[in-house]
Amino acid sequence: MPITALVSHPSLPLSLAGEPADGFAGWAAGLVDTMGGPGAGLAIALENLFPPLPSEVILPLTGFAAGQGVIGLASALFWTTLGSVAGAMALYWIGALFGQRRMHALWARLPLVKVSDLERTERWFARHGTKAVFLGRMVPIFRSLVSVPAGVERMPTHVFLALTTLGSLVWNGVLVLAGYWLGERWDLVERYVGVLSKAVLVLVLVALAAFLAVRLKGRGRTAGHARGRAQHRRSS
């Protein structure tokens, strides 16, 4: 039986948001049905380029397909990892083509940030970039975004490829195997990893809000001091 039929069959507890036939699950299942392992790889490559596409749906569903014999487990792991690497390399080259010079020029035009912020980030990436690329492959949202600064900073391609392959194999392996072992309950993976994704997003938004609040407060204090000095000069 095709995986799309298994996903949408009313007797199986596999519905995602009540619309498995039309949602991400149905789309990913269709790719696996049509193309086999390469279809799963294509879905994950697109997920890397467009982070709103959920790997927590695509990967366990691919594992479920392997458990049902639609594709082999080794094929599922190989093609999803290859797709992750392909998507990450595309983002890496986007960052490399954009380059440091354009990044500094763009940064200088942004409000509420300083060139020193970017320089500090670059120094941090120079020291910890390898860990960021490897571990970032296992963190929702950052698994895609981390490829861009690696390209901007021109991390050696062979190092980036090795770290991305290893990190992707770990993340993909855990989610594919979870779907393989859970069988018809593969959607439990999406439920729990989805909570993690939302938690990461909330933390990022809180950190951004705190940064903006500190910068705006500092700007107000600086403007107040400038007005005070101007009034003092006029009065004297």
Automatic annotation (TrEMBL):
Span of domain VTT: 53-180
InterPro entries named among the record's database cross-references: DedA_domain, VTT_dom
Bilayer topology term: Multi-pass membrane protein
Record localization: Cell membrane
Annotated TM spans: 70-94, 159-183, 195-214
UniProtKB keywords: Cell membrane, Membrane, Transmembrane, Transmembrane helix
Positions in coiled-coil regions: none
One Pfam family this sequence matches: VTT_dom
Leader sequence segment: none
Domain of life: Bacteria
Family from the record: Belongs to the DedA family.
Protein's name according to its UniProt entry: DedA family protein
Organism: Streptomyces litmocidini
